[in-house]
């Protein structure tokens, strides 16, 4: 389809095959997001209602929360939204190389956000906050966990889209190779998160010194090795100069993905406000 | 026209290079036989799958109701145990709502709506197939309980906390009946939301040229409103069920009163979904009625825009009345008054619709055919249910009626007298279109009268039972309560109703094989689906229609020359674009849904590692689904075929 894209100018804001001019996929995504609004609305309401009906065993959220960390995570997620917007823009111009780079950037920022969440959960569990320890734990983990799942699904989708940009233009079989690509990608992502989070925990406990870093490195030697080998593999798979079946016509796919990604960003801003900042008022 | 447009450029090329595709992505092409059904993306076939499953579960739910009525026929009866009785009323309600009425409505949405807007398929054909298979997975999970030690779900169809908590619902270690209920509803919700998103996009984006929104047939409008109600109300129950599932599977505290949980929160979340659900059940029936009444009154629908806007108003207000299910929970005067007023307000658009239907009948040349009988039965019986509904809106009166048989009478009048009469009318009305045969008027009317009389004999006495204090969900009552006669009458009525339903379906089956064959447009109707041969070909329209008026087919019938010329031009234009584009069939919707089913079954058994395996199958199915692409092929009509659509 990319070959067609070069000859026919594509109007990205009007689809003349539909009654309204809005592409079907975009309309579908908007309707889905309307549904998802009610989904998060219900969850956030549950949290707020139980905030007014605290149980005596509830911890003091002000002492629990590390607002610096959450602020950092929020900032990271906001920047990822910018990157995905740029990716949409690049895809509408058919600039596949910069689409790849921007998607990768979004993935890295999304994973950073998830790492922050895993790190935070680790700290909270250490403090004794679990799903069943108090009502605060129940609503906090369920709400932020559901949002985290949405981010994880978004990262998965971004990764699939990134891999999709390598689909060869000729009819060579590609699906198995793409699955391999995905497996390597997942291995790298998971081992990076494990390494970073455990290093961060070590630094938090023992301070930022060379000895601590070396110890953390030794401790995670396997995941570091997997991450490094995986990164090399990814780089190798990604070095393709052959024509690909990806271009301006796929901009709508990236735009739908972008809508989803912006939405989970907005939801996070609400969660950050009513779950975290509200406690400090 | 996603698939159509894209594959118009890509599909043909892809087909030219087809031999190189791997076996995994070879699209099935069977048009008959089991494979054609398992891989179908045709909205008409999917509609029939929905219809057949829904009718099967309708009979199952009806059977459960009969067992309930037998148990209540005489005082101190021991026909079934209390435990079985609890399972019966829980599964009767869950089955009738989620596995009978909703999918039967979905069957009509699928089959009729694309035809009414002049489309060749829905916006996302494979997703449509997926919605059906997911529905079937949910239906299976809800009904597994009958075949295992746990038994069927037994906590009532609205599963009030704390009845669903482990302490009260698990009779032995590994009792999964409530988990089955949670997971079944969750999966049915996924199916409904996916299906509805598809319908919304289809109605908004795939209308034939000239089919403006205010020319949409009312049934299509009601499909749109129902779809919006579904996507906006189901998330509330999804979250409520997630919270309950977290409580039961991962020991969280949402509804555990001992740990500070608020059982009342469950009620709010459930009814925020549950009340719009009531309109999800009734709006499609209202749409069907709005098609049938004008057709058999030989008049256009009276007050079309008002009917449409009333539908929208009902849908909108439907989100603000949920707490009238909870008047006796002590919400406070303010909240009770507000919800009382809102509930009274919602009667206004409903009344407006009824007056418009009467306006449609007024001065018409009424033709008393079977669909019309059911439609008139709907208007009358639904009004009855509406009247007792308004009685409930007054909180003091409701405090007396809450959880009594009066409520049971009320909602059966709106659900059977309303939704089911509407759907049975729709089956009769569209049967000739779908199967090309017509039900005999005698047998059709006989089944109507049996159903109508049986229904009233069953449920009318329940008003008095309720006012005399009989609580709902009573398995056994004593002989000196003054409830004996009414209960016996009610049970006799239930059997008359059952005979009526048996006659109804026996006649349908006979008609399918031996009924009188019909030509195009047997009812002399007004909407586009009747311009098609019976049954319609797979591609629906030889030439996509151009719509000039609200009653589009009526206009075509009165302007034949103009339309014939227009069709010829458009046919030429379409042929020059490569013919009629059709979406390719696919295995992967079924594949993904099976993954979901496997994962869900392991999950309810708390075997989470295995559940991940099911999830992996699901993800793989979705992956292949994306990788195979929309596909598509072109149909070229030869001259003979072409004439079918033009027969006069």
Quick structural summary:
In chain A, 75% of the residues lie in helices and 0% in strands. Chain A has 281 residues and is an all-alpha fold.
Describe this entry's structure for a reader.
The complex is a heterodimer of chains A (281) and B (648). Chain A has 281 residues and is mainly α. Chain A is 75% helix and 0% strand. The radius of gyration of chain A is 21 Å and the shape is flat. In chain A, 38% of the residues are buried. The N terminus of chain A is likely disordered. Chain B is mostly helical. Chain B is built from 21 helices and four strands. In chain B, the strands form two sheets. Chain B has a two-stranded antiparallel sheet. In chain B, strands 3-4 form a two-stranded antiparallel sheet. In chain B, helix 3 packs antiparallel against helix 16. The longest helix of chain B has 35 residues. The chains are: A mainly alpha (281), B mainly alpha (648).
